[in-house]
Design goal:
The protein is an all-beta fold. Helix content is 0%, strand content 51%. The chain is built from no helices and 11 strands. It has strands at 3-8, 10-12, 18-25, 34-39, 46-51, 58-59, 67-72, 77-82, 91-97, 100-101, 105-109. Strands 2, 4, 5, 6, 9, 10 and 11 form a 7-stranded mixed beta sheet that branches. Strands 1-3-8-7 form a 4-stranded antiparallel beta sheet, with no helix packed on it. It is globular and about 40 Å long.
Length: 111
């Protein structure tokens, strides 16, 4: 059974950076696609980025050039590095793997 454990997030000023982590148990991330979504207050959950089991990551237009996905297969963990954060990035962020959602982590961008 796949289980996801998210960490990271918090409060940051505009222009700042944060890194989110999604640690996976029950399955090897080296053979599976991993996605990130986010949900802002009052809005629908939206796609942020995904990284396939092989190849390059793909990003939503709103985060391209600012967010970077990477994976550490030895730690079975995926990281979402978020740079140059904007207030509109404020949301709860979720990783999504093999039809399972992480518990979500709050990211707040505010001065």
């Amino acid at each position: 059974q796949v289980q996801l454990e998210q960490s990271g997030g918090g409060l940051v000023q505009p222009g700042g950076s944060l890194r989110l982590s999604c640690a996976v148990s029950g399955s090897s991330i080296s053979t599976t696609r991993m996605d990130w979504y986010r949900q802002a207050p009052g809005k629908q959950r939206e796609f942020v980025a995904y990284i396939p089991s092989g190849g390059s990551a793909y990003y939503a237009e709103s985060v391209t050039g600012r967010f970077t996905l990477s994976r550490d297969n030895a730690k079975n963990t995926v990281y979402l590095q978020m740079n140059n954060l904007k207030p509109e990035d404020t949301a709860v962020y979720y990783c999504y793997v093999q039809f399972r959602w992480g518990q979500g982590t709050q990211v707040t961008v505010s001065s």
